[in-house]
Amino acid sequence: MKAWRESASLILAARHTKRYIRSSSTKFQYNYNLLCLKRHRNSKFLPNTYVFPGGVTDPSDADLKWHNLYTAFGFDTNSFTSLSLNTSNRPQIFKFRPNELPKEVSLRITAIRETFEECGVLLCKQSQEDRREDFGWAQYMNISESELYNWQTRVHNDAREFYTLCENFNCYPDLWSLYEWSNWLTPTHLTERYDTAFYLACVSTVPQTICEVTEMENLKWDTPGNYLFSSSDVAFAVPQQYEIARIAKFESIHNLIDFAIDRSKMGVLLNLPVKIELQDGKVLVLPGDSMYPDKVNLLEKQIINRTDITISEFRDISPIKNRIELFNLQVKEFYVQNFDSADGHLAPLQLRNVSIAMTHENSKL
Hints:
By secondary structure, the protein is of the alpha+beta class. It has helices spanning 66-72, 103-119, 145-157, 161-168, 224-229, 238-247, 253-264, 311-316; strands at residues 5-15, 21-22, 29-30, 32-39, 50-51, 54-56, 124-125, 172-173, 179-185, 194-203, 216-222, 270-271, 274-278, 281-285, 303-306, 321-327, 332-337, 351-352. The strands form four sheets. Strands 1, 4, 5, 6, 9, 10, 11 and 12 form an eight-stranded mixed sheet that branches. The protein is globular, with a radius of gyration of 20 Å. Its cofactor is Mg(2+); Mn(2+).
C-alpha cells in the first residue's frame, strides 16, 4: 500500500468587474477573487473545510493517448518542453514514469479535470490561436447548464470521461495557463496522506460555477484578505491558509500573474510540516525554519518532543521562523520571520487567530 496518494489542486483567481475592492478589516484593496469550495459535512476528511478545487490523480490523466488529442490541434512533443523543468531537487511527485505522460503534463490534467468535476469550470481551448489579448490568462469554455451537469456527473463517475468530453466539445486542456505554485505533503504523524501539486491560474472574468453536490456543499468567491481576516466561519487546512497568505500580498491580479509566470520557472520545493509538541500547544515547522530537522524521513512517523519549553520560548531560540503555531487555547498563528524561500516564493503574511481546520487521524493535514 502506498504511503500517500498523489493529487493536484488549482488556485483559481478571477478579475473583478470593479477596479479594486477593499477587504474588510484590512488595508489591502484587491481587483480579484479566489475560488474556494466547502467540503461536504459528511466527508471522511476535512469535513466543512474550504479547499481549492482539486483531487487525486487517475491513471487516465497520464494516458499517452492525450498525445492524439493534442496532435489534432497541431501540437508536437516540443510544445510541452516549457512545462518540464530541469531544476535540481525536483520533488518526488514529478518523477517520470515509463509509459506515462510527464508528470508536469498529467498533474495539470488532473487539476483541470477535478476543477471541472467539482465546480464546472472548464479550462480548455479550441484552437492554438484562441488567445486573449493579455498574456498569461487562462480561458474557460461556456457550456449550457444541462450539458454541464451531465458531464460533471459523467466525469465524477469515471475520470476517463474527461477525455471523451474534450473530444465531444473539440477542445483540449489549457496546460500552459497553469503555473506551478507549490508542493505539500501531509505530515508523517497522520495516517491519510496526500502529496499535492498546487497550480495557479487566472481568468479575466468570474466563470459560471456549479457545485458537484456529492463532495462539495458550497463554493465561495472572495478576496484573499477577506478569507484571512473577515471570514471567521471559513476554516482552511494549513496548505490552503498558507498559500492564501502568500497570495494576499498581491493586490493586483496582473502582478500576481507576472510573479507566477516568473517564479514557476524555478520549480517548487516540497513542504512537509513537522510536528513539535510544546508545553502549551504544538508547532508545525516548515522547511527553512531554524528548527526544521536536518534529516526528514518521508515515511516514518516523526514528532519532536519539546514539552520542556513553551511556544514563546521556542520562538525565542529560533532565528529563522517558518511555522504555524497552535496553542492549546485555540489561538493559531502563522509566524514567518527572516525567511527567504529557496524557490523564489514570497513569505506569507503573518497571521494571528486564523481559522485552521483541526487535524486528526483521518485528515489530510
